[in-house]
Amino acid sequence: MWTIYLKEILELARDRKTFIFTVLIPVLAMPLIMGGFSYVSTNLFNKARTAELTYAMFGKEYAPGLAQRFTAERGFREVPLASPEQIRNAIDKDVIKFALVIPPAYQQRLQGKEQASVALHYNSAVSMDVIRKRVSAELDAVNAELREHELSALNLSKKQLRFALNPVMLEERSTAGKREQMGAVLGGLLPYFLLMGCLMAAMYPAIDMGAGEKERGTLETLLLAPVPRSSIVLAKFLVLFSIGLTSSLLMVGSMSVLLFAFGSAAPAGVAAMVSSIGALDMAMLALMLAPTAAIFASVLLSLSIYAKSYKEAAGLISPLMLLSLLPVMVALLPGVELNWLWAMVPLTNVALAMKELVKGTMDYRMFAVILVSSTVTAGALLALCRWWFSREQVLFRN
After folding, report:
1. Residue 340 and residue 241 share a domain
2. What pLDDT was estimated at residue 183?
3. Rounded-to-integer distance, Cα 361 and Cα 275, Å
4. Of 219, 236, 245, 336, which cross-links 213 as Cys (Cβ 3.0–4.6 Å)?
């Protein structure tokens, strides 16, 4: 068995593609992608909050105070339009970001103690609704001034005025620390990169060791050797397991170096989270990758053995990436938390546990259950792969 294992490892070590998928992508590409994405997204969010918004306003003579507020406020620049009929075309051509239309009865309604309205025209088909939030902030300020002005006529004291404006004020006191808050956000992305990296690293070697040997005609020679088929399957499984686990551990190591080296330059919440992650957390994170790599290795080897050719194996294994994403995406759904039920679900339990580890709220009893359930799942899949390998109609499909 170990002779076959070393032979497969030696052949893969000589292959440049193996080096790219096992070492180069996990160590360099994934951390750079994550770091670059975080940097770019943070800059884009900050830029969207402070970017200059061009707008048009119609009916300014009916609300001079509101018009003056938008004129004086930094971050807004008025663009004149001839008529309200040009609003839609101007927004579509990005001439303006939004338009406000004030009705003629605006001032009369306010003076008559009635609620007035202002129409906001903008394109809401965007992922970040920054325009509405920034316009609403200005209107909230106008509403606060109008309320205070109306209530001041009642000769109320400051305490009475505060009560009239906000009878009940909500004071937020979060029990979550900085690490838990940031971990809830970043911890959901970590399993995606680690699990996908583990799967991608073992995909190409798996195709080569099953369907590749069929095409080269070396599988028959291997079966004629005085080696039990269980040993052959176990040797190939250990190769894929070693490659997947090594790739994941290299990714964990490179990401750790990246976080601890440049974590201080990150926002305060991220820096606090990085500084509170200890060696034990990283060790537990790496330990959970072992049964996950075993699950992927068993499934990949089974599909490769079943395939008649390299092309068919690639077609069978490619959808596996999409199927593997579903359990990871489930861990991001609201209401899905790590409990005794989810601790039994393969891949989802690992994704939830990784998020809890990053947050610093891991229940170590759950951790043991996750390791046991994932190991049992991997063992069952390996037994299925061994049974699959013993069937002649599978090995020599025409």
Report:
1. yes
2. 66
3. 15
4. 219
Does residue 297 sit in the same domain as residue 358? yes
- What is the 3-state secondary structure of 111-143? HCCCCCCCEEEECCCCCCCHHHHHHHHHHHHHH
Among 131, 124, 121, 122, which Cα is nearest to 53's? 131
CB contact burial 71-98 (16+ within 10 A = b; e otherwise): eeeeebeeeebeeeeebeebbeeeebbb
Same domain, 276 and 244: yes
pLDDT of residue 89: 92
The pLDDT score that the predictor gives to residue 296 is 92
Q: What pLDDT, on the 0 to 100 scale, is given for residue 208? A: 84
Look at residues 165, 198, 224 and tell me which one is the last residue of a structural domain.
Answer: 165
CB 118 within 8 A of CB 84: no
If asked whether residues 264 and 290 sit together in one domain, one would say yes
| CB environment 302-319: b (16+ within 10 A), e (fewer) | bbbbbbeebebbbebbee
Q: Are residues 248 and 110 in the same domain?
A: no
**Model pLDDT, residue 19:** 67
The answer to whether position 172 is within a domain reads: no
Are residues 125 and 218 both part of a single domain? no
* Total domains present in the chain: 2
pLDDT along the chain (398 residues), means of 10: 74 69 66 68 71 89 89 88 91 91 89 86 75 87 81 73 75 70 69 82 85 80 80 89 86 72 56 63 83 92 86 84 83 82 88 83 84 92 87 71
What residue numbers bound the domain in which 123 lies? Answer: 51-165
CATH number at residue 88: 3.40.190.10
